[in-house]
Design brief:
With about 140 residues, the protein is an alpha/beta fold. Helix content is about 20%, strand content about 40%. It contains 2 helices and 8 strands; from the N terminus they run βββαβββαββ. The strands form 2 sheets. Strands 1, 2, 3, 6, 7 and 8 form a 6-stranded mixed sheet that branches. A hairpin with a 5-residue loop joins β4 and β5. α1 crosses α2. It is globular and about 45 Å long.
Length: about 140
């Protein structure tokens, strides 16, 4: 399981011209699920995201986590993160989880984040989404477990 995380001032997801998920200060999580992933992968990645110190403290250093700043998460499924781009000019998605399993683990990840007390907004799994964000910094990281 892997994620691109972006520290944001605000972010939202639009499906069919309707905002379906929106946050203020927090982290936009683009979540990719691969064949070998399971609940333990999701738990480990969520723990890392919630504890990752990417928000600035009073001295301007990245020492605070999303939990420390009472930030929010916007979790968006991102099938293309599973792409193998090493060969040729067209990505291969052979390592991506099958849609039903990816959807199950995506919803599991969201539920576990909510259970931790983090305010979570989401995209719509499998939908054609438009993601709008103001990246703060910009600060962007690729995390995987």
């Amino acid at each position: 399981m892997q994620a691109i995380i972006q520290r944001v001032i605000e972010a939202k997801v639009v499906v069919e011209n309707k905002v379906i998920g929106e946050i203020n200060q927090g982290i936009l999580v683009l979540l990719g699920v691969e064949k070998h992933d399971n609940e333990q992968s999701a738990d480990k990645l969520l723990h890392k995201i919630c504890g990752y110190r990417i928000f600035t403290d009073d001295q301007g250093k990245m020492n605070l986590s999303v939990s420390d700043v009472q930030g929010q998460l916007l979790v968006v499924s991102q099938f293309t993160l599973a792409a193998d781009t090493k060969k040729g000019m067209r990505p291969s998605f052979s390592s991506a989880a099958v849609p039903d399993e990816a959807k199950r683990l995506y919803h599991y990840f969201v539920a576990q984040a909510q259970a931790k007390g983090v305010e979570v907004a989401t995209g719509e799994f499998g939908a054609d989404m438009k993601v709008h964000l103001v990246n703060d910094g910009p600060v962007t990281f690729r995390l995987e477990v």
